[in-house]
Design goal:
- The protein has 692 residues and is α/β, with parallel strands linked by helices.
- It contains 27 helices and 14 strands.
- An 8-stranded mixed beta sheet has the order 7-6-5-8-11-10-12-9, sandwiched between helices. A 4-stranded mixed beta sheet has the order 1-4-3-2. Strands 13-14 form a two-stranded antiparallel sheet.
- Strand 2 and strand 3 form a beta hairpin.
- Helix 11 crosses helix 16.
- The radius of gyration is 29 Å and the shape is elongated.
- The N terminus and C terminus are likely disordered.
Length: 692
């Protein structure tokens, strides 16, 4: 097996030129035998598995040890022993001999977690640093503080390095997560007292105007509502046309490839490590359906880095994870408590633990396409350097539950299949969705990652990316999740989105001149329509509905002014605008659901006119919360639709199936025969959970 083991020959460590010098391992020059051979000699790995790992390593950007761990072919302890022999250095246990907090601060706690190192001691002018990845140690030397001087390498496991940092710097890390975004671009610096006075002043002015000059105030509100309707419809039309051009370009390219006129580019680089964070809150079934869905991914396990991000005080999810034997490629990150509990705060904290240079997000109820990570790796490989984010489409696996679920599915199909691709093609700000997002990590960190205080952190991040000149591409991959199928949870979810839109608009309009300069004229005015215009439409919808009184011959305060305007054509033109707007929405909706998967929704598209009034209630709830509790995260209820009920085969007569969970992804059913029919168990709905 020597020839196989030789494939893991580590790169020689070299000296850095930035003031940090590698003094070598602690005992002697590195062992001449490669890692694979040492593992064979120790009896720590099966020769057949080592052969497979060696073949994998030739096409993947992964260490041999990482591949073996990812498939469970070697234990972390056995790998640590073999690395200790190979590098002829000492292993330490930070639980017994903790690291020096001053050294950790000098290197940066987040930097240490990301790269699996623990600055341990400084003795006699030498800085001792433990690492779980000795073959990457040389590349880190130029990025370490110059005051480290001569550095010597020690070894520990990945878990030990992380725990060694967290034992002393956990609180510091969570405080940094809460303030990653600069204060000028964060909601945390919002002056709540001033916001309250402004909202109360505007409301008072409107009420006084309606009392003292009702016709003038009604006309002003109607003019603004009509203007926002025009701009919203215009943006929708332009986005639909642009999306059609995108599809036409894709068809032409596919046709040229099919005819042999163009050779599709081949991805010649090794596949990258991709980290995906899955924020969880009060998820009672995390060890069942969620991880089973993630196990369907066909991306190499050694390159898959899934982080289940849970709040430290979340007893429900913690109980669900007790005793779960998670594979090596799924880890749990516990977020310390703090003044707020939001999804972006948890993501900022967990970002420190990600191994990959591509970072993504899925929600608790998501079921991504099995090949999604392959598409992400390929798309980023060929994407221009200014593409910071890839946004996939969201869909639902329960669109037939009820009328609300059908409308929700149509709305999402319209947004992700038509409007977002068109907005991206037009060069406007892309308001990101909360899931199926993937980023180039260094660009994500450059813009400050997520604003922990914004309840619509995804849309805000899309604006900050655009302000710095980065683009978002929409890719052809789908993640299925559970459609919101009850009215009250729908209103709560929509009000949180609209509250976040209002806060995002307010934050970025603190300096409109700078925003205009950074976005450019087209994207700046598009931003006004996308955020302030959309919010205005929800809030002023009753003003537009009131015009149907004119059609019914009922009294309306603006009847007389409109009848005398434009030679009596004002009212017909107004109703023409309403009908054209609804017709445009119907046409776009029909195009969005025309594919086979959602063709059954075509008859329901015209009924969307009855769906959006719920948003008016959500809009006013959002404005109320902007004033009273801007950072409150209203949880979205899901888990109401039992997916397994539609897919699981019925048990045989006289038997009951007990699914026993061993290692996640391996469901071992035990069937117990019983001639006596068992009573049907009561199924209680799952508790409310946090969704993106």
């Amino acid at each position: 097996m020597a020839s196989l083991a030789a494939a893991q020959e580590p790169e020689a460590l070299s000296q850095a030129d930035e003031g940090v010098q590698f003094g070598g391992p602690t005992l002697a020059p590195r062992h001449e035998s490669p890692l694979g051979q040492i593992l064979i000699e120790d009896g720590a790995v099966d020769p057949g598995n080592l052969l497979k790992a060696t073949v994998m390593r030739r096409r993947e950007n992964a260490r041999l040890g990482q591949i073996l761990l990812g498939h469970g072919w070697v234990t972390p302890e056995a790998l640590a022993r073999a690395l200790s022999r190979q590098w002829r250095t000492t292993t330490i246990d930070p639980a017994e001999t903790p690291g020096d907090p001053r050294l950790i601060d000098a290197a940066g706690a987040g930097f240490c977690l990301t790269h699996g190192i623990l600055p341990w001691r400084r003795i006699g002018g030498v800085t001792w640093i433990a690492t779980a990845r000795p073959d990457e140690f040389a590349g880190l030397l130029p990025r370490m503080p110059s005051e480290f001087g001569i550095v010597r390498m020690l070894l520990c496991t990945e878990a030990q390095a992380q725990e060694g940092v967290l034992n002393t710097r956990r609180i510091r890390l969570i405080r940094e997560a809460e303030s990653r975004v600069p204060a000028a671009e964060s909601c945390r610096t919002q002056n709540q007292a001033r916001t309250s006075r402004l909202a109360l002043g505007l409301l008072t002015a409107v009420m006084l105007g309606l009392f003292l000059a009702p016709v003038a105030m009604a006309g002003l509100l109607a003019a603004w509502a009509i203007l926002t309707l025009l701009t919203q419809s215009g943006l929708k039309l332009m986005a639909a046309i642009a999306a059609r051009r995108v599809r036409a370009d894709d068809r032409r390219l596919a046709g040229a490839i099919a005819r042999g006129e163009i050779t599709p580019p081949e991805m010649d680089a090794p596949l990258p490590v991709i980290s995906v964070m899955v924020p969880l809150f009060e998820e009672s079934d995390v060890a069942g359906k969620l991880v089973a869905r993630l196990a369907r991914l066909d991306y190499p396990r050694e390159l898959t880095d899934l982080l289940l991000v849970i709040e430290e005080s979340d007893a429900v999810t913690s109980r669900a994870l007790e005793g779960a034997q998670l594979p090596h490629w799924i880890r749990v990150v516990r977020v310390p408590d703090g003044p707020i509990k939001t999804k972006p705060r948890a993501l900022n904290y967990a970002l420190n633990f990600c191994r990959g240079q591509i970072v993504g997000i899925w929600d608790a109820e998501d079921r991504p396409d099995p090949d999604q990570l392959h598409k992400i790796a390929r798309a980023f490989h060929f994407a221009p350097a200014d593409v910071a984010c890839l946004q996939g489409a969201l869909d639902f696996y329960n669109p037939r539950t009820n009328w609300l679920a059908r409308c929700f599915t149509i709305e999402y199909a319209t947004w992700f299949r038509v409007l977002l691709p068109g907005v991206a093609r037009l060069g406007l700000v892309v308001p990101l969705g909360g899931t199926t997002l993937f980023f180039r990590r260094h660009l994500l960190e450059e813009v400050g990652a997520w604003d922990s205080w914004n309840v619509t952190e995804d849309a805000d991040l899309g604006v900050r990316l655009a302000r710095r000149g980065y683009r978002t591409q929409i890719i052809e991959t789908t993640t299925d999740e559970e459609a919101n199928c009850r009215a009250l949870p729908w209103v709560k979810q929509r009000s949180r989105w609209l509250k976040g839109y209002a806060m995002t608009w307010g934050v970025h309009m603190r300096d409109p001149v700078a925003l205009y300069r950074q976005l450019g004229a087209r994207a700046f005015w598009g931003f006004q329509v996308q955020f302030f215009g959309a919010l205005s439409q929800y809030l002023l919808a009753p003003v537009l509905w009131s015009f149907w009184l004119l059609a019914l011959g009922l009294p309306h305060p603006l009847r007389a002014p409109l009848e005398g305007m434009w030679g009596g054509w004002a009212i017909p033109l107004l109703f023409g605008l309403f009908i054209a707007s609804e017709a445009l929405s119907i046409i776009v909706g029909l195009r969005a659901v025309r594919r086979a998967k959602h063709r059954h929704l075509l008859p329901w598209v015209p009924g969307m006119h009855l769906y959006f009034p719920l948003g008016c209630l959500a809009g006013w709830k959002a404005i109320y919360e902007v004033v009273t509790k801007p950072f409150y995260w209203d949880k979205t209820a899901h888990g109401l639709y039992v997916e397994a009920a539609e897919t699981a085969p019925a048990p045989l007569p006289g038997t009951v199936e007990l699914p026993l969970l061993g290692q996640i992804g391996e469901r071992r059913p035990t069937v117990v025969a019983d001639p006596t029919p068992l009573p049907a168990p009561a199924v209680a709905p799952t508790a409310q959970r946090l969704a993106g």
